[in-house]
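User: For a benchmark we're assembling, each entry needs the component sequences followed by a predicted structure for the full assembly. Here are entry 17's components. Please fill in the structure.
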Amino acid sequence: MLLLALVLGACVMFFPFLWSASTSVSPGVGLSATPHLIPEQPTWSAYAELFRATPFARVIANSVGLAVATTAIQLVTSSLAAYVFARMPFPGRQVVFGVYLATMMIPMQVLLVPLFVQMRQLGLVDSYLGVLLPTMASAFGVFLLRQAMSSVPTELDQAARIDGAGHVTILTRIILPNVGPSLATLSVFSFMSSWNAFLWPLVILRSPQLKTLPLALAGLQGQYTTRWDVMMAGSIISILPMLAIYIFAQKYVIQGVANTGIK
Amino acid sequence: MGIRSASPSRRSAMPAGPHPQRRRRRATSAKARYALTVLAFLAPSAVPLAYFTIYPMFSALWVSFHQWNLLSPMRWVGLDNYVMLLHDPTTQRAFVNTLTYIVGYLPLVYIGGLGLALALNAAIPFRNFLRGVYFLPVVTSWIVVALVWRWLLNPSVGIVNYVLSLVGITGPGWWTDPAWAMPSIIIASAWKDLGFVMVILLAGLQAIPADLYEAAHLDGAGWWGRLRHVTLPMLSPSTFFVVVISLINGFQVFDQVYAMTGGGPAGASTVVVQRVYDMTFRYAQAGAASALSWMLFLVILAITVVQLVGQRKWVNYA
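Assistant: Structure for entry 17:
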């Protein structure tokens, strides 16, 4: 009984994805009547239209490039800072760590005006760097990795230190291999937040060929008010990579969310 | 370097050797090298955080005391922007709309998430698979969620109104109707976040010791008694976390509103962040926009602090 209800609920939860996929291969849909779930003559024409009328291939490349760069940079910057907070004591360290944590509370919209002006001064409005720079550091990432690194036994690095290893070696050879799951969690979260980011890219990017997927999708509405097949095709393309990552790394995503709640 | 930095205490215990000068210099250089390492490790994250988060935060406060169109020089107006905003009907409406969103959204995701967490904590087949399906919308972007739900809730050819018509109900105009625009946004948002709340509460449920349930069972507590007297009190830290995070995110709601209704129709779903965005980039009122964003931040901060203080009354930490 419970299982039946849960399966039904899961179908309802999953239905919007299914419906979008079906719509995306039903051309001319939505003009007169509600379409069928199983399209009568499925075609890829909506996808073709998307790539013909908009620089969609470029948009996908932009999103992939920015997400990969953000993830790689955040992994490096977060690991280095987390190592200091877990292993290198200095006077005032707790205060500095507190400041890092406090930045997690600052909402994006407060930074909107000054950040835009700063980027204008740097000549970075409408550029990849303008999107990328504010996402270089992740206080969440530092926090996540510090918690993980603190639980790695110190005997391991003491042994390495006696062998003459420096901090860089200890970090890369001893600590990082021991916090693999947390690195995976951070990677998925960094990638996801960049892939789905909207407000800041909306402010800083102007040219159609620099836009990321969420911006291009929001733009489709103005361009194709009633071409639901094209809009759903764009949505499906944007969902698929996250879906693949999610299926692959479900454990780390769910674990990461669950851990943020425990604290 | 590690060995050297570990040894000064032993060295200083020894009587003064033949070259105290050189030894001290070596100790200082080790210390300097340690400090340099700390700096080099922190800089890649500290510099961006300082320059792209902390500095603009205070810079926004400074801008909020000025009249500024982003181009000509700023003109000092003191608290005028704040006074203006408090009396501005559009801004008041944006706050009311934002609160409406939170009031509709929070009970929906909490009760739904709790129900799912309780059900998926039981020993049932396909448990992980079902959890995965319920969590799936969490990883999709707000823009996709908005587009998909605009389509599902299309007033004339959408599937939701089609299904309603099968049971004899004429569906509303959803996002095209001022009265139904905010409910449409709330439904789409709840669909996306349900899995997030479920996972947080599942983690909380799994931390409840089984002997508490056994004790309650021995005392003759039924399903409802166990839920009220064991599960909910023991789950209060997770509930607290969900409420705090939902309120913080709720006050900052923007993406799905922008893509689903654009704040319309006729301002019926304009939220505070939408207003900040419009003021900055449509009406070139950067000073007032900064003031509004700081007001919003202070509201969020105040509510979070009140909750942190108030939690002692209802949150149980084992």
